[in-house]
User: What shape does this take?
Amino acid sequence: MDARLQALLDKQAITDLVYAYCSASDRHDHARLRALYHPDATDDHGGFFKGLASEFIDRLPEIQAPMEILHHNITNLNIALDGDYAEGEIYVLAFHRIRTDAEPMDLLIGGRYFDRYEKRDGIWKFSAKAVVADWATVNSPSTVQLDHPLVQGSHIGKPGPDDPSYEFFRLFKWGQR
Assistant: This one.
Protein backbone atom coordinates (compact mmCIF):
# COMPACT_ATOMS: atom_id res chain seq x y z
CA MET A 1 0.00 0.00 0.00
CA ASP A 2 1.18 3.49 -0.75
CA ALA A 3 2.81 5.01 2.37
CA ARG A 4 0.70 8.16 2.06
CA LEU A 5 -2.52 6.17 2.07
CA GLN A 6 -1.36 4.17 5.10
CA ALA A 7 -0.51 7.43 6.89
CA LEU A 8 -4.03 8.74 6.21
CA LEU A 9 -5.57 5.52 7.53
CA ASP A 10 -3.38 5.62 10.63
CA LYS A 11 -4.17 9.28 11.32
CA GLN A 12 -7.89 8.60 10.92
CA ALA A 13 -7.69 5.66 13.33
CA ILE A 14 -5.92 7.90 15.88
CA THR A 15 -8.49 10.67 15.34
CA ASP A 16 -11.28 8.15 15.98
CA LEU A 17 -9.44 7.04 19.13
CA VAL A 18 -9.27 10.63 20.42
CA TYR A 19 -12.97 11.19 19.72
CA ALA A 20 -13.86 7.89 21.43
CA TYR A 21 -11.87 9.02 24.48
CA CYS A 22 -13.95 12.21 24.73
CA SER A 23 -17.24 10.39 24.30
CA ALA A 24 -16.39 7.69 26.85
CA SER A 25 -15.18 10.34 29.33
CA ASP A 26 -18.33 12.42 28.94
CA ARG A 27 -20.61 9.42 29.42
CA HIS A 28 -18.56 8.12 32.41
CA ASP A 29 -18.25 4.87 30.43
CA HIS A 30 -15.20 3.44 32.16
CA ALA A 31 -15.25 0.06 30.41
CA ARG A 32 -15.22 1.78 27.02
CA LEU A 33 -12.49 4.16 28.19
CA ARG A 34 -10.31 1.29 29.45
CA ALA A 35 -10.47 -0.38 26.02
CA LEU A 36 -8.78 2.68 24.45
CA TYR A 37 -5.51 2.28 26.38
CA HIS A 38 -2.79 -0.35 26.15
CA PRO A 39 -2.47 -2.26 29.46
CA ASP A 40 0.86 -0.56 30.29
CA ALA A 41 -0.27 2.96 29.30
CA THR A 42 0.27 5.92 31.60
CA ASP A 43 -1.91 8.93 32.33
CA ASP A 44 -0.88 12.28 33.80
CA HIS A 45 -3.92 14.34 34.80
CA GLY A 46 -1.85 16.69 36.94
CA GLY A 47 -3.23 17.09 40.47
CA PHE A 48 -5.89 14.43 39.92
CA PHE A 49 -3.59 11.55 39.05
CA LYS A 50 -0.27 10.45 37.60
CA GLY A 51 0.47 6.77 36.96
CA LEU A 52 -0.94 3.78 35.08
CA ALA A 53 -4.00 4.67 33.03
CA SER A 54 -5.81 1.58 34.33
CA GLU A 55 -5.40 2.89 37.90
CA PHE A 56 -6.68 6.32 36.83
CA ILE A 57 -9.76 4.72 35.29
CA ASP A 58 -10.28 2.76 38.53
CA ARG A 59 -10.43 6.12 40.37
CA LEU A 60 -12.72 7.84 37.85
CA PRO A 61 -16.02 6.89 39.54
CA GLU A 62 -14.87 8.84 42.62
CA ILE A 63 -13.39 11.73 40.61
CA GLN A 64 -16.42 12.03 38.33
CA ALA A 65 -19.09 11.54 41.03
CA PRO A 66 -19.72 15.29 41.50
CA MET A 67 -19.53 16.05 37.77
CA GLU A 68 -23.08 16.51 36.55
CA ILE A 69 -21.95 17.48 33.05
CA LEU A 70 -18.74 16.69 31.17
CA HIS A 71 -18.40 17.91 27.60
CA HIS A 72 -15.08 17.55 25.76
CA ASN A 73 -14.63 19.23 22.38
CA ILE A 74 -11.61 18.60 20.20
CA THR A 75 -10.43 21.45 18.00
CA ASN A 76 -6.93 21.05 16.50
CA LEU A 77 -5.29 17.67 15.99
CA ASN A 78 -1.56 17.62 15.32
CA ILE A 79 -0.48 14.02 14.76
CA ALA A 80 3.02 12.84 13.86
CA LEU A 81 3.58 9.25 12.70
CA ASP A 82 6.64 7.02 12.84
CA GLY A 83 5.64 3.50 11.82
CA ASP A 84 3.59 1.91 14.62
CA TYR A 85 4.32 4.83 16.98
CA ALA A 86 2.68 8.26 16.90
CA GLU A 87 2.41 11.43 18.95
CA GLY A 88 -0.42 13.92 19.15
CA GLU A 89 -0.85 17.45 20.43
CA ILE A 90 -4.63 17.60 20.71
CA TYR A 91 -6.40 20.86 21.58
CA VAL A 92 -9.43 20.43 23.82
CA LEU A 93 -12.19 22.56 25.33
CA ALA A 94 -13.62 20.71 28.32
CA PHE A 95 -16.72 21.93 30.16
CA HIS A 96 -17.54 20.59 33.63
CA ARG A 97 -20.59 21.30 35.77
CA ILE A 98 -19.64 20.24 39.26
CA ARG A 99 -21.97 19.61 42.18
CA THR A 100 -20.78 21.27 45.41
CA ASP A 101 -22.15 21.47 48.97
CA ALA A 102 -23.61 24.88 48.10
CA GLU A 103 -24.60 25.40 44.45
CA PRO A 104 -23.24 23.73 41.31
CA MET A 105 -20.30 25.48 39.64
CA ASP A 106 -18.97 25.53 36.07
CA LEU A 107 -15.40 24.94 34.96
CA LEU A 108 -14.40 25.50 31.33
CA ILE A 109 -10.83 24.52 30.53
CA GLY A 110 -8.95 25.21 27.32
CA GLY A 111 -6.02 22.90 27.08
CA ARG A 112 -4.15 20.23 25.23
CA TYR A 113 -3.56 16.52 25.41
CA PHE A 114 0.00 15.38 24.87
CA ASP A 115 -0.59 11.84 23.63
CA ARG A 116 1.55 8.92 22.61
CA TYR A 117 -0.05 6.14 20.61
CA GLU A 118 1.14 2.70 19.59
CA LYS A 119 -0.29 0.34 17.04
CA ARG A 120 -0.11 -3.17 18.48
CA ASP A 121 -1.66 -6.12 16.69
CA GLY A 122 -2.92 -3.65 14.08
CA ILE A 123 -4.87 -1.47 16.58
CA TRP A 124 -3.97 2.06 17.67
CA LYS A 125 -4.38 2.78 21.39
CA PHE A 126 -3.02 5.27 23.89
CA SER A 127 0.34 4.42 25.41
CA ALA A 128 0.62 7.73 27.32
CA LYS A 129 -1.57 10.79 27.91
CA ALA A 130 -0.75 14.06 29.68
CA VAL A 131 -3.24 16.87 30.19
CA VAL A 132 -2.11 20.51 29.93
CA ALA A 133 -4.36 23.42 30.97
CA ASP A 134 -3.75 26.60 28.98
CA TRP A 135 -6.62 28.60 30.52
CA ALA A 136 -9.69 28.10 32.71
CA THR A 137 -12.92 29.95 33.48
CA VAL A 138 -14.92 29.26 36.64
CA ASN A 139 -18.54 30.32 37.22
CA SER A 140 -19.82 29.88 40.74
CA PRO A 141 -22.71 29.43 40.87
CA SER A 142 -23.28 27.58 37.61
CA THR A 143 -24.80 29.44 34.67
CA VAL A 144 -26.15 26.26 33.03
CA GLN A 145 -29.94 26.44 32.56
CA LEU A 146 -31.22 23.10 31.28
CA ASP A 147 -34.65 23.97 32.71
CA HIS A 148 -34.93 27.14 30.61
CA PRO A 149 -38.06 27.27 28.38
CA LEU A 150 -35.89 27.37 25.23
CA VAL A 151 -34.51 23.94 26.13
CA GLN A 152 -37.83 22.47 27.29
CA GLY A 153 -38.64 19.21 25.51
CA SER A 154 -35.06 18.66 24.35
CA HIS A 155 -33.23 15.40 24.96
CA ILE A 156 -30.76 16.06 27.77
CA GLY A 157 -27.38 14.35 27.85
CA LYS A 158 -26.46 12.45 31.01
CA PRO A 159 -23.47 10.55 32.34
CA GLY A 160 -23.67 6.79 31.96
CA PRO A 161 -26.01 4.46 30.08
CA ASP A 162 -29.04 6.71 30.69
CA ASP A 163 -27.65 9.09 28.07
CA PRO A 164 -29.96 9.17 25.02
CA SER A 165 -27.10 8.05 22.74
CA TYR A 166 -27.08 4.53 24.22
CA GLU A 167 -30.66 3.95 23.08
CA PHE A 168 -30.49 5.91 19.82
CA PHE A 169 -27.38 4.45 18.18
CA ARG A 170 -27.27 0.95 16.80
CA LEU A 171 -23.85 0.96 15.12
CA PHE A 172 -21.69 2.26 17.97
CA LYS A 173 -22.68 -0.59 20.34
CA TRP A 174 -21.67 1.48 23.38
CA GLY A 175 -21.81 -0.44 26.61
CA GLN A 176 -21.74 -3.76 24.73
CA ARG A 177 -17.97 -4.30 24.48
